[in-house]
């Protein structure tokens, strides 16, 4: 039995994407990518982007979150959320595959 699941996007993250689209006057997808680097070995690259060939597209109510084929294995069973904290509001990735992460939350190791 394969328990490999694609990342899940919370309703709160989709709702924030809708707010951003309304403020910008255009609908852009949220891209979640994993790049080498950062203080723990890998880092998340989270930005607004357009879909590309080979992307996994997670969609709800017209809002889209994109994950490229290279990043997908690093994001298996992860949750993409939006949080508002004292340090600021941001999209976050809760990744069960990460063995450690840095204090800033954008860098991790596996």
Structure description:
With 110 residues, this protein is mainly beta. 13% of the residues lie in helices and 43% in strands. The longest helix is centred in the first third of the chain and has 14 residues, at 11-24. The chain has one domain (8-105): Hypothetical Protein Aq_1857, Chain: A. The two termini are 23 Å apart.
Strand order of the largest sheet: 4-5-2-3-9-8
Shape: globular
- How many helices? 1
Parts with pLDDT < 50 across at least 5 consecutive residues = none
Largest sheet: 6 strands, mixed
By CATH, the superfamily comes out as: HesB-like domain
- Listing every helix as H and every strand as E from the N terminus to the C terminus, the arrangement reads EHEEEEEEEE
Q: Compute the gyration radius: what is it?
A: 14 Å
Give a quick rundown of the structure.
This protein has one helix at residues 11-24; strands at residues 8-9, 29-36, 42-49, 56-60, 63-67, 79-85, 88-94, 100-101, 107-109. The chain has one helix and nine strands, in the order βαββββββββ.
Secondary structure layout:
Layout: E1 8-9, H1 11-24, E2 29-36, E3 42-49, E4 56-60, E5 63-67, E6 79-85, E7 88-94, E8 100-101, E9 107-109
Parallel strand pairs: 1-6, 2-5
Antiparallel strand pairs: 2-3, 3-9, 4-5, 6-7, 8-9
What key attributes describe this structure?
Hypothetical Protein Aq_1857, Chain: A; globular; mainly beta; three-stranded mixed sheet; 9 strands; 110 residues
